[in-house]
Each structure stands twice: as C-alpha cells, then as structure tokens.
TrEMBL record:
Highest taxon, organism lineage: Bacteria
Keywords carried by this UniProt record: Oxidoreductase
Domain Lactate/malate dehydrogenase N-terminal stretches: 8-146
Pfam families from the UniProt entry: Ldh_1_C, Ldh_1_N
Lactate/malate dehydrogenase C-terminal domain ranges (all copies): 149-315
Protein name: L-lactate dehydrogenase
Species of origin: Megasphaera intestinihominis
Keyword Oxidoreductase in record: yes
Amino acid sequence: MAFKKRVVGVIGLGHVGAHVAFNLGVLGIADEVKLCDVKSEKLVSERQDMMDAVMFMPHRVNYTIASYEELADCDVIVNAIGDITLCASGNRDDEMHFTVPQVADYIPKVMAGGFQGIIINITNPCDVITDLIAKKSGLPKGHVFGTGTGLDSARLVSAISQQTGLDHHSFSAYMMGEHGNSQIVPWSLIKFGGKSLAELEQNPAYVFDKARVQDETIHAGWVTYSGKHCTEYGISMTAATMVRAVLRDERKIMAASAPLDGEYGETGIFCGVPSVIGANGIEEVIEYNLPEQEMKDFKACCATIRANIAKAEEFWK
Ligand SMILES: NC(=O)c1ccc[n+]([C@@H]2O[C@H](COP(=O)([O-])OP(=O)(O)OC[C@H]3O[C@@H](n4cnc5c(N)ncnc54)[C@H](O)[C@@H]3O)[C@@H](O)[C@H]2O)c1
C-alpha cells in the first residue's frame, strides 16, 4: 500500500529559504523537500548539509534539487527568493525592483510544469509579491497567501510576554496591515485567557508600556538585521507553521497576507489579517468590528499596499 508523501518546495535557498527547508524536516512536517535556487553550487551544498542532519530528524526526509517545472508535484511551495542586501535601508519596498521581475518571470514556469497546490510567499515586499504570485499563477482564491503580519504577530506576542511575564501561548495578539513600516497593533483584539486588555490592566502587575511594545514589534526586524544582516529563525518558523496548517488541514487562526474581497470594506489587495488556514490555504478572513481609530489606521495600511501594488506593476506589466 502506498501512502501519499507530503512534498514541499522551497524557491530561494538564502538565509530564509534554507531555514524553512531545515525546519520542515526538524519539525516533522514534510516527507520530501524540493530545493530550487538560481545558485546551483549553493543548492548542492545546502542539500548535502540537510541530508547530513536527517539522521537526527523525527522521521525520514528526502531533500532533492528541482527546477521550477519540477516543483509540479509539490503540495505546497514556499517562495523565499530575494536579495536581502537591498533591505539595508530599513524599507522592505527597496527590494521590489529586484524581486518583482524575478517572480513575474518564474511563476509562469512553475505553473507550466502543472503545479496545482498552495503557494505561501515570504519574499518582500510581502503583500505586493503575494498579489503578483496570485495574478501570475491564476490559482484559486486563497491558494496563494503570504506570511504577511504572521511574523510581526509573533514579535508582538514576544514583546508583550517579556513585559507582562505571561507565557506566549496564554494570550492572543495580532499585527494587522502591511508587512512593513505602516503595520498596526489592534489593541482591541488582544485577549488574555479570555480577558480584554482593559480588564487585564485592572491588575497593576500586568500594566505594560504600549508604546514600547508597539515600537519593539515594528522595529524587531531591524534589531535582528542590524547585527547579522538577515532575519531567519522567526520567519522560517512562521512559514513552517503555515505549511503544517495546510498539510494537516488544521484550520488554524494566524495572521497572514490574505486576499481581501469586501472584508473591512477593501477589495483587490493582499493584506495582513487574522485568517483561518487549512487545506485550501486561506479558508476565511476573520473580520473584526475594529474601533474607529484602529479601523482608520488599518485602512491607511491598505492604501499603502494598494499604492505599492500599482508601483510594482511598473516592473512587470
Ligand atoms: N515576509 C517576511 O516576514 C520576511 C522576513 C525575512 C525576510 N523576508 C524576505 O525573504 C526574502 C529572502 O531573504 P533572505 O535573507 O533569504 O535573502 P538572501 O539574499 O539570503 O537569499 C535570497 C536567495 O534567493 C535566491 N534567488 C534570487 N533570485 C532567484 C530566482 N529568480 N529563482 C530562484 N532563486 C533566486 C538567491 O540565489 C538567494 O539564494 C527577501 O525578499 C527578504 O526581504 C521576508
């Protein structure tokens, strides 16, 4: 009897892609991981290094090298190409002139191979590239999505956890909007074991500095980048968790760059919002009744993304 293998492709084996591929093995998520990059020597070395680690992984994983077309049988592809040196300015949009033409060129090649699975995008500017992949692939709505504010939400949870002393898993908090400098903290959504932030703050032991938490969250990426010239652990765990949610049809709620189709009064953009992730990718965008100011700030993020999508079109249309 043959069991179906869980096959995941990773395009772009830089700092981020290599960690995603490694985590897919270490966390027992994939049976085969197909590695794809323009640097053929790097691919051979990464594959060798990962195969050397399989002995210590929870189950057998086969790491293979694949062309764009050979990713056809993947259940999920994680897109992680880029040139991280272009982000040194502190603005993820500065990578657009490189990433947009690359992605516009190879997504049709991936599709020409017959790929029919789910694509999760990491490449920056994340919401813009996710929109581009959706357009170029023609895959059904929800089958293309981005890590979006998934990583930023993990950073928010970490910042609150450090200030309140509460465990990361004991409360829920999400960043929304752009995976970029205009992202927002919707304080109204935070729940501590069912209690709202206002209720929690009635206990002085849990009062924390919101401005500092917001600042630490938005600038966390730059703290990481400044000393090592990349970010890799947080983003690769975010993406691997999303891959698992798809492969195991978990219907897990995470913030992700999701297609908005009327939710929050927005249409035609990808934006970071809490979403249900399952076998069909983004299965539902969760719509909250945000207070007036949070809604205004969120709409401003959507305007920024919309303008960047228009700017990106100059590089591929
Ligand atoms: N969304 C997020 O939260 C998040 C977090 C961290 C990094 N990123 C982004 O992820 C991307 C990768 O970051 P990194 O640090 O790994 O970059 P990196 O420069 O270390 O590696 C990029 C890799 O992509 C490969 N590549 C470039 N063009 C390619 C193509 N056409 N086909 C196949 N491979 C190609 C390169 O050869 C290189 O190995 C960047 O866009 C970065 O900004 C996003």
